[in-house]
Amino acid sequence: MMFASLAASAALMVTGAVTPPPAPEPPSSLNGPAMHSFVDKLMQRMTLEEKIGQLTFLGADHENLDELIREGRVGGSNGVVVNGKVAGKPGSDLADYLHHLQELAMQSRLKIPLLFAGDVTHGLRTIFPVQLALAATWDPALVRRVHHAATEEATGVGVTWTFSPMVDLSRDPRWGRVVEGAGEDPYLGSVMAKAQVEGFQGDDLAAPDTMMATVKHFAGYGAVEAGRDYNPAFPASRQFLDVYLPPYQAAVDAGAGSVMPAFITLDGMPASGDRHLLTDILRKQWGFQGLTISDYDAIPQLQLQGVAADAAASARDALHAGMDMDLHSGTYLEQLPGLVREGKVPMTEINKAVRHVLEAKYRLGLFQDPFRYGKDRARAKRILATPQHRKLARESAVESMVLLKNDGVLPLAKHGRIAVLGPLADAQEALLGEMHALGKADEVVSILSGIRAAVGDKAEVDYVQGVSVDGDDTSGIAAAARAAKAADVAVVVVGGDLSMIGESDSRAHLDLPGRQLDLVKAVQATGTPVVVVLASGRPLAISWMADHVAAILDAWLPGDEGGPAVAKLLFGDANPSGKLPMTFPRDVGQVPLYYAHQPNPRPLDKEHPEYTSHYADMPNSPLYPFGYGLSYTQFAFGPVQLSSDRLTPNGTLHVKVRVTNTGKRRGAEVVQLYVHDLVASVSRPVRQLKGFQRVVLDPGQSREVTFTLTPADLAFHRADMSYGTEPGAFQVFVGGDSTATASAQFTLVADKVAEKKGRGAGDK
Questions:
Q1: Which pTM was predicted?
Q2: Same domain for 423 and 505?
Q3: Which residues have a catalytic role annotated?
Q4: Is 538 within a domain?
Q5: Residues 110-146: pLDDT tens digits?
């Protein structure tokens, strides 16, 4: 029988005498000899059941969790924090609960510590803006600080591992999980992926205030058909490699300790059982040395995806593909022992997976001290929702918000009469966003409260809800219109609630749900200036409002300090600086719509539209382009200057532009660099983001901004699917969004050495 000798070896290991594990060396985040020696000695003493236990991750809902932990048959526990609730007994303290589980692990024969994982995505107790909003800051240093603050809180109560960041690029705002990612662009997504990993993991995983990050969902989850969650994805091979993969690789290169494959089938192959994806690409090509863990119950779902006949085949195929740990389902626990003994699963595959798990625990310092996380109870209480973290939540919320339109009504005066209207004006829970860990709705400052606090007794603030988020009752619209008519300005807060974003909450329509647009129209008809504040986790189709209301501020789902942040921007105590990480379509019929599209052989000719690419009922252009965002001041861009008109194969090219604040207020501009390859062996995008810098300028102040380009920035998968560059002409654009017009041109020079060897220039 195949693998018979390995099965015999496994049987000897199960029945042989076992001695206690060796004492660990001091923890280290490096892959040093001490770690390898420690893991080698420990694995020699483990039974088959104990090894498979390390590959098993079970939640509090498993009826035999405590017993299995005592037996050393569980590697860790998942779902320890879920939307304001602690796993385990209702009302239990998270630190106490995790300490209890670790004590059970210390009663096992080998005393191998547990990992504790939760979805700490944009905060634990202090809730920061959702990930899409953080991407709108275009400020990786701020994003790094936000995730470090979240990590301080999580590790303070015992969490050692987060199932974040989600770096799935998506160009379809119907997909509910766009709220968890960084938008549509691989460059911005890669920068944000790196910043999040660094925020979670710091410089050393063994430090008690860092935790292991998980890059997910590997790979291409954001390309699901029809924008519907769990659907299959079929991105073209070149698009998959050049567009969808880079953010995952950036997270791996940044040192992410773990990777979670996607639920979905990718070009017909479920990611959970795809050896090419999990072994050939992830480990062999990218050199990933961490651990992989399935998504929730993903392994048995290989049966539903039609590639495994039963649970045993699911376990066998997932492990062989390179899936180290089974999240929640218990399939490995139930199926792998028998498969090994029957010779259907080689012990080498078990050992490889176990090694990845034990090495992760070693890097986290758990063998040195299983209770190092959450050990300081005073710190655990002190670190949750500190004033410093609340201040950072407000800062990040302010930076994330995008001013989409302003006819001059903003900033508002802090006197007179203000009508605050809409179903989300006094909302708290909705502002938390999805996966808000231990965030508490009653600690969220609503937008209404933020406005009232900002004006104090200087202005009269009237509040009318008007309509619900998604209901059909319009009886409150008349009262809202009366309040608006009596006011100097109306602030209408509309958007979506938690039932309309996140996992399994895709939308077929992108307009405002319910009767919210009717509310806006009624308020607009009063003649009072209208400011719309959007609270949403995705781009919305808001063409009517863009044409009619005076101002629109996209606040996203801003977290605990959303109210004060909105107020600071509305009243001019802060200057908007956020930029869109996703294109806003005019209508859902344009989706997918993104800036980095291929050139069209028959582009629209407005004077002679016949036989050109166009819609008969609306413009081709987006409502608001990628990278767009207004300010209360203005910025002017000088001519683009290049250090040379030629870029050599091993050279660098400096792109310079002078940016001037021509307005009357201090403000921040995100200077964006785009590149277009004019002629190549395959059609290239009309432009691609290749750099950005956030600069703050006083009125009248100028600054020279410099970008550096190398041939690596110009590489792509060529006609023969090899990866590298091609000589030829390139155009660069620099400006404040993806429609920038200031440009210059250079030539990438051919690699003569490569040509002599018979390879394409720049081949790698």
A1: 0.94
A2: yes
A3: 295
A4: yes
A5: 999 999 998 999 999 999 999 999 999 999 999 999 9
